[in-house]
Amino acid sequence: MTQRTEDAFRADIVEVGRRMYARGYVASNDGNISIRLDDDSILTTPKSVSKGFMTPDIMVVVDLNGKKIRGPRDASSELLMHLEVYRNRPDVRAVVHAHPPIATGFAVAGIPLDRAVLAEVVTTLGSIPIAEYGTPSTPELPAAVRKYIKAHDGLLLANHGALTVAGDVFAAYYKMETIEHFAKISLVARQLGREHLLSREEVLRLQELRGNYGIKAPAPICADGSAAAPEEDPASCQIVQAPSSSGARLIPSDPADLDGEIRLSYRELTALIEDAVKALLGGQHG
Ligand SMILES: [Zn+2]
pTM of the predicted model, to two decimals? Predict the structure, then answer.
């Protein structure tokens, strides 16, 4: 990889901000982006600026404690969350935070994006858990992020938004795109009333592909995520909801709703019709 200069990193942040704004992942002055320049300094977006209209000269350089080194403005109040990531993940070189509306809707509803539905997502991000709610700009939010960031490259933040991390800022941004796209597809499938999950066997096969294709994941998929699996620790592995199957690779999310049909015996059906007729006649006479 070629050595990028600070000027190039500033231009990268401007470009990622433009894309986030253009795709509606942020409104007003929401969101923030940062890049690790070296062991001691972080380049980041300033507070109170639309991510769609930034210029390279407005960025701020801070140390790993958040103290400003140089720059015309102050860093975003959500910088604490970024610093927490860099402290816990030496492999991470960039952090992107936004409020993409569909993914944030899941974060508001308290529904994590952790079902094994799309092979691509299982292979790259694994699961996208929800970090517990913390008041923005307070130490509560970094504490909530700390619990999940060791094992995940993408998180939902309860009643707030989403956070993605990677080895460079465009990779972190693309993970944000993947999360929002996954959220959209999950929403549509749930509106249609049916969601087929990948079986646990298939998920483990996909996990092997990670190794074959050299996909870097911060942690493996948990060995048993078929149920809620409370014994699994989100700091050590990625909890993916994927039921075990005997041979089938796709399984309905609700086995009772196998193909949307209700099956009754002839006797049950006759009894139901008799009850309905009685109710109808009773209504007429009463
Ligand atoms: Zn935010």
Answer: 0.84
